[in-house]
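Message: A physicist's question: would you kindly supply an amino acid chain plus fold tokens?
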Amino acid sequence: MPDSLSTLFPSLDALTHNALVIDSSGMIRYVSARWDEFNRQYGLTSTPDCLERSILELFQNILIVPADIHKLEQLLQDIVQGTRLSSSTELALLTMNRGSRLFELNMCPFIAEPAPAYKAAILAIRDIGLPPVIRQLVPICASCKSIRSTQEEWIRIERFLQQQLSLQFTHDICPDCIRELYPQYAASLKW
């Protein structure tokens, strides 16, 4: 990016957004200070430095629905080609530190005076919560209740929920199991 535009980048650090500046080829040209903190908090990428990387490459390995890469690509093209002034989408991402999360991505053109010879966009991302698991079918064994993962391996339901929803478990025992496994104690419990 030309030096004249780099003087505008500190303004992005003043915003509360987790922002990236992306050129028309999809290469990340600037990373806001808030993005760095956001990346450390969520673990979106194992390499802290995203500069000079493709935005599509960055997201392709963490998208829960791999076909959503086309959604992101279209979002970028709509902005840099001037088809839209702003664009937004929701993507479910598998983060290293917080499991599966739903994120809102907003993109708008990077506008500067004088007009640059190239087109660029600003991408801002924010966490909007857990992904709606209900929308997808999850293959579960009818006998042992293990879950078939996207890598075609069978995993215990506890591990699946930890990976997908970042849940933590503690052990307990339900009244039916106490009656079945420990009948001598069941009568003394008031359930």
